[in-house]
């Protein structure tokens, strides 16, 4: 993962078409982002600016990709971080990092001549857990409070308009204050892909790989119930490695078949009854 402490990483190269099997999430996300794209109209109607979007769902389903694509869609500078980067032993350091993150986002946007900045916070439950419950330490509360302060301070006529996109697979752990209007008041569910979704994702991750004539993406998709996008990416890579070990220049169906076991062994997959 490409988290760059306190710094900014700019991704211009991810679009929604690079994300497989998330049609509903993409549609909902785009609808929310259109508020930002149609900034003028929105303002004329007196609609308050969208400040936060929460992406919820299991790991490896493409939440980070969606955030990157959202930055591209709104022509925003992209700054990524993770909740774990705010957890510090010393009081006040986490809060200071939150302040710095908003500052970095604004500066980065200005540096590259953009009016929008998108801050992505992965694993937001680590910094935004329920206050007074996740820990006895006051430090976390200060960090979360600072995030709320920064979000409350965002204005439609700011020189750089900041949108915060956060991701979590534990929405139940979040402090309810984060979900209030004017904060993360839009939620987009990002689910594990269904069979058709898996077909799309496998296609995306094999598009630059030489496949033998016997490869059936449909049957790979059938074999991979419960796999996330990240698992499928790893599957395509493992299959290619197996083919290479045999000195072949094409990947065959049996390589994918073997790779399924490898990926499953690598991780205890949550494979609910097949549909
Ligand atoms: P986490 O919750 O662990 O941060 P995430 O939901 O943010 O995970 P990503 O980091 O976006 O997941 O995905 C990891 C990698 O898995 C991606 O870089 C991509 O290669 C692949 N991937 C995941 N989901 C998809 C998808 N829907 N379409 C295509 N590739 C995907």
From TrEMBL:
Its cofactor is Zn(2+). Residues 49-194 form the AAA+ ATPase domain. One of its GO terms (molecular function) is metal ion binding. Keywords: ATP-binding, Cell cycle, Cell division, Coiled coil, Hydrolase, Metal-binding, Metalloprotease, Nucleotide-binding, Protease, Zinc. GO terms for cellular component: plasma membrane. GO terms for biological process: cell division; protein catabolic process; proteolysis. The keyword Signal does not apply. The keyword Coiled coil applies. Belongs to the AAA ATPase family. In the C-terminal section; belongs to the peptidase M41 family. This is Cell division protein FtsH.
């Amino acid at each position: 993962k490409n988290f760059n402490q306190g710094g900014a990483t700019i991704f211009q190269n991810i679009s929604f078409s690079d994300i497989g099997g998330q049609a509903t999430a993409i549609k909902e996300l785009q609808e929310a982002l259109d508020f930002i794209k149609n900034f003028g109209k929105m303002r004329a109607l007196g609609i308050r600016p969208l400040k936060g979007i929460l992406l919820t769902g299991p790991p490896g389903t493409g939440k980070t990709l969606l955030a990157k694509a959202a930055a591209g869609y709104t022509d925003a500078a992209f700054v990524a971080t993770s909740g774990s980067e705010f957890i510090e032993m010393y009081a006040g350091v986490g809060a200071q990092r939150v302040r710095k993150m908003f500052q970095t986002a604004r500066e980065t946007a200005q540096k590259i001549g953009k009016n929008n900045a998108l801050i992505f916070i992965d694993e937001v439950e680590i910094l935004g857990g329920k206050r007074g419950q996740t820990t006895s330490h006051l430090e976390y509360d200060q960090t979360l409070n600072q995030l709320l302060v920064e979000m409350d301070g965002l204005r439609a006529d700011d020189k750089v308009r900041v949108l915060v996109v956060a991701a979590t697979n534990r929405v139940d752990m979040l402090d309810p204050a984060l979900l209030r209007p004017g904060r993360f008041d839009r939620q987009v569910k990002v689910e594990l892909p269904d069979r058709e979704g898996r077909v799309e994702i496998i296609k995306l991750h094999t598009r630059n790989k030489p496949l033998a004539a016997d490869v059936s993406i449909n049957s790979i998709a059938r074999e991979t119930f419960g796999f996330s996008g990240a698992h499928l990416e790893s599957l395509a890579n493992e299959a290619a490695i197996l083919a290479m070990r045999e000195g072949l220049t094409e990947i065959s169906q049996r390589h994918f078949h073997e790779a399924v076991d490898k990926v499953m062994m690598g991780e205890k997959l949550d494979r609910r009854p097949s549909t």
